[in-house]
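Box 4.2: Ligand-aware structure prediction
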Amino acid sequence: MIEIKKQYAKIDTLNNSLIIDFSKDAKLVYLGKKIADCDDYDFSGVRRAQTFSSADDIDALKRTVSSSGDGHCREGMIYLCDEDGNATVRLSCEGIEKGNKKPTLKGMPSSHGESECLTIKYGDKNFGVEVEQYFGFFDGSDVVATGVKIINQSGKTIKIKRAMSLQLDLPDGDYDVLTLDGASCRERRAVRRNVNGGTFSNSSVAGLSSNCHNPFIEVTKKGYNGFTVATNLVYSGNHKELFDIPSMGGARLLSGINDYLFDFPLKDGEEFQTPEAIFTVAANEEAASAEMRKFVSRNIIPERFIGRERPVLINSWESFLFNFDRGKLIETCKKAAEIGIEMFVLDDGWFGKRDNDLSSLGDWFENEKKLGGTLQDLADEIRGLGLKFGIWVEPEMISIDSDLYRAHPEYAMTISGVKPLEIRHQIVLDITKEEVRREILEKLYGIIERSKAYYLKWDCNRGIYELKNSGELFHKYVLGLYDMLSKLTAKFPDLLIESCASGGNRFDLGMLCYTPQIWASDDVDPRERTTIQEGTAKAYPPLTMGAHVGHIPNWHTFNGTSYDNAFAVACCGAFGYEFDVTKISEKDERTLKRQVEFYKKWRSVLQFGNYTVNENSEERGISSYTLADDKKEKAVATVIYLDRTINKLYPVVYIKGLLPEAKYSVRFTSDEEIKFTASGSALEKVGVYIGNLYTSERIADNYNSIQTVIMEIEKI
Ligand code: GLA
């Protein structure tokens, strides 16, 4: 609810208040827990010079925007420069507007479902620029969406050197900063450090949001009046988050497109829109994460996929890599159908002459010899066995050894006279060009139409390193990608798309606006996956993560474990299997059947339940969470021991996320003997003794394995 009094706009969200002073030097007066209305907030402002030099006062203000040459000495939000090299931009607030809708961001995805929007207008007549900043609010949520539009009115072309989406000037304090860092097969591990001075930077540079540093960031002010601010960016390219602690005091959080090589020209009369950033504030990290997860489920993933069940799938990649023929595929699908699996996904290797990763990207027509017929025939036969059909593509890439490259070398990103850098033996298509996008999309449309695919896996297995026209390249690439995804999803609105980038190299809110699930990592070793999924869940709900039971022992780590341990880790995500099920023993087949049956029975809780962290692995090497339906009547709680302890008692685990007063029946799926009843508050406060899981039966597969327990919880 937006209330305007004098020069103050006060917005109350579900639990919080945001107060903005929109006088000439617009300021962020307050962001935090809900407060009762006041007549004005004059008492809060900097009324007198704090120091001898009045210029220094600019740094004492909690500004809503900042620019180059405006007198502050912090990291700034918007840096512009005209043809003469003048970068002096002094933005002052010119007014605000209240409305119900956020602006539509041309060419970029953004959150949906807002109920109110506040727009603040700024300008600098001398430089000739206007800036419009919006704040979108959502019923039943504490998340706020924001972004800025820069309008050039200078009569000449200017260059944008930096355009951040979000600036939050926060109070003084001792801060911890949490980011999700990693690498391929080690994505999004939560890393926390204390930032007390200087500028902390979290960014990506290779054209994708990256597995090195996710755009999600949480800053936690410790001690008196402590809080956590979480922010994330609805963008899939190079991003940068800065947390700047100037010596004058205060703290500034910025998030937006990375200014690495960014030098974007804006002609007179043109506008530049930043991507959307979202942020929230809460009492602590976990509360802020919970609010962000809820927002992603309700306001980021496409509306038509909210509450839509995802089928249990089997993917061909870790089963066969490139080595399959029709016989193997059909045999797999028959076995999968017997197990109860609902969809078969034909991964890499089905097109061109692709029997390894040396060729054929761009040649999006089936290898009929390998498939033993057309794609349509194969898909029909698989559907005849009772499975849905899904297929893998990598539309942004081209192999030098491909018909497409031979016909159109100009479609690839190359620099004349420079040998293109081949990564995974492939180069990048220049999807900033309309004709390239059109050609690839037409081929994709054909594949989807002919195979009647239910599901598409959209992969992207390298970054951008041919840097022609570098000032615009990275951003235009992302706009090209979004153009393709928006056309594809408009044409096939029901197609379930899972995006992927060498595992989870592009796991972000921009992709989630088109593809409601993302392959979280190529590493499906349940020990590694526990840390990856736990980190990812700080920002994203579990159902956004593709999570499979893979080959045992694991292909990357060689860790062994049981199928039940692997299932316990994978079953909270968009679930599937990814190994050769035709080669398993009868006992293992019975195990898989039991798992699929359990998954189907609990699917609505596992897929749409609210995720509450009981314990993070960093505390005691135990990872545990509860997934509970909205009414908290049915829940599944999982406990994962990452390490075996010797001569140390196994502790109790506190099960959260339930109704304190309600009574529940609790049953361990792995051990039917263990069942009991307890109130929600007892489960949370007294806890459940799990005991030693490293029994001789359980560790038969591997002494070093993780051990898991799943609890089925029902309100009595
Ligand atoms: C990437 C993906 C894998 C698989 C392969 C196919 O590595 O992350 O899941 O699809 O490509 O080449």
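In the box above, the bound molecule is alpha-D-galactopyranose. The first helix runs from residue 57 to 60.
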